[in-house]
Prior knowledge:
Layout lengths: L2 H14 L1 H36 L5 E6 L13 E2 H7 L8 E16 L2 E10 L3 H5 L3 E4 L4 H5 L4 E4 L1 H8 L5 H4 L3 E4 L2 E9 L8 E5 H9 L4 E2 L1 E6 L5 H15 L10 E5 H44 L1 H9 L4 H41 L10 H27 L3 H6 L2
Parallel strand pairs: 4-9, 6-8
Antiparallel strand pairs: 1-11, 1-12, 2-10, 3-4, 3-7, 3-11, 5-8, 6-9, 7-8
Helix pairs in contact: 1-12, 2-10, 2-12, 2-13, 10-12, 10-13, 12-13
Amino acid sequence: MNMRETLVIALRSLRGNRLRSLLTTLGIIIGVAAVIILVALGNGVKAGFDAQFSKLANQITITQATGVVPGGGEARNLTDGDVEALQDPVKAPDVASVTPSMTGSVSLTAGQATEKSDLVGATYNYLDIVARTMAVGNWFTPAQVQSNSKYLVIGQEAVSYLYGPKANLGDVLGKEIRLNHTTFRVIGVLDTDGQNDNIAIVPFGAARAYLVGNANKVSQIIVKSSSASTVNLAEDQMTKILDVRHYIKTPTDRDYRVRAFQNLIQQRGQFITFLTLFTAAVAAISLIVGGIGVANIMLVSVTERTREIGIRKAIGAQRSAIMKQFLIEAVVLTGLGGVIGVIIGVSVTFGGGIVVPQLVPSFPVPVLTLAPVLIAFGVSLVIGVLAGGYPANRAARLRPIEALRFE
């Protein structure tokens, strides 16, 4: 028989046992669809992470080391002089901007409500540095920063603590909130980033003058390199400048810490990739289970059709023709399951991309790529070959006389 005749016979056999064929392919369908959907969800999470943090890829943060430094003694403070030195375009040509900030903890009081919050004393370009936006109101102007004005930009979590979770953000503007023992007026509310929302931001000078003291100390210095590709160069230039200013002879004696967000982003991105692969591997287990089901059904089919095999071999059917028929049946079963699984997986992914943003706006939209679709379908065909190989070989090896005597 040629391939076409073998295929027709295989399809007739499967059609004669429709329910059994459907149940056999169910594991393949679920496995293929699950792999496509989970990989798409993982890609969506990774894409959302990259979009959220890509603006911070060239950000470097410098903070004072805590405790006793390895070289002995207390760590020196970061100062205004350090900020000015890092802004030198000759010594640090790959440094695009340098922004000092004051950080700490502060007590917020509005009426009878009191809450602890993170404090940031910021300059006028702070929002651009940390890639955040305003929900309502305005950010500090350069004049307000220079004049140490008692103005306040507050996070949405802090608003909910002070005024309740259903408070209208617009109504907060213009209200007075006491930070420790000094009253500030709210001029804006930050848009949420899901992490640093319990925060109170005041002008840099005002933080020094009224809240944290020390007219020369800087809590942290936020630096942006000229691009993501020059982060390492900028970091080297910065450490050389600070080593000279802090009298550091060896890197182990440094009394400051440098953290590049690019490294953190890469580590988190790798974690998300591994998590996606892990979930896809878990989903692939159902493909293996489906393959075992196909092998089991094909063995049953060989047993049921033993006399048919005997008759075909008695009238001259070759061993290869018998093996080809059962092998094609197994591949058709898994291939059909793979096609249905692909259709379901792609449909659910596209449907999720439409529905999810409406139900959960903060959840990343699934991102479908061609690779998992092709791989999942290809694996389903391979499973068909492997699961049908032994039953097909067993059928082909039956002797005509023994097959005809089989009851």
